[in-house]
Design goal:
It contains two helices and six strands. With 96 residues, it is an alpha+beta fold. It has one domain. β1 and β2 form a beta hairpin. The longest helix is centred in the N-terminal third of the chain and has 25 residues. The chain is elongated and about 65 Å long.
Length: 96
């Protein structure tokens, strides 16, 4: 269950992650070096269109959920047979 939640959160945040990556690549002033040599990103999300990124993430999430919900599984009345170990081989699960 936690895997499903994490996947949905990552789908929602994917446009924001892509935006942050783009800003890091195209704007060198967003990265500063500390006195001890470490790199510290600054002002990454100051000018970010957060409302648009959240909207794009929500649309992406809904599209993926609808696509997977409408294309997986069998028709009503069909029965699922799980994978079976027979004669030293695993026969994959299938819908009858």
């Amino acid at each position: 269950m936690i895997r499903v939640v994490i996947e949905n959160i990552l789908l929602f945040l994917l446009p924001t992650i892509a935006y942050v990556g783009w800003v890091l690549i195209t704007r060198p002033e967003t990265v500063q070096r500390t006195p001890d040599g470490r790199i510290r990103p600054t002002k990454l999300l100051d000018d970010a269109p957060l409302l648009w990124l959240a909207g794009a993430g929500a649309i992406l999430l809904v599209v993926v959920l609808v696509a997977f919900g409408s294309t997986s599984g069998g028709k009503p009345g069909q029965q699922y047979s799980p994978p079976v170990y027979k004669d030293g081989r695993i026969e994959p699960g299938h819908i009858e």
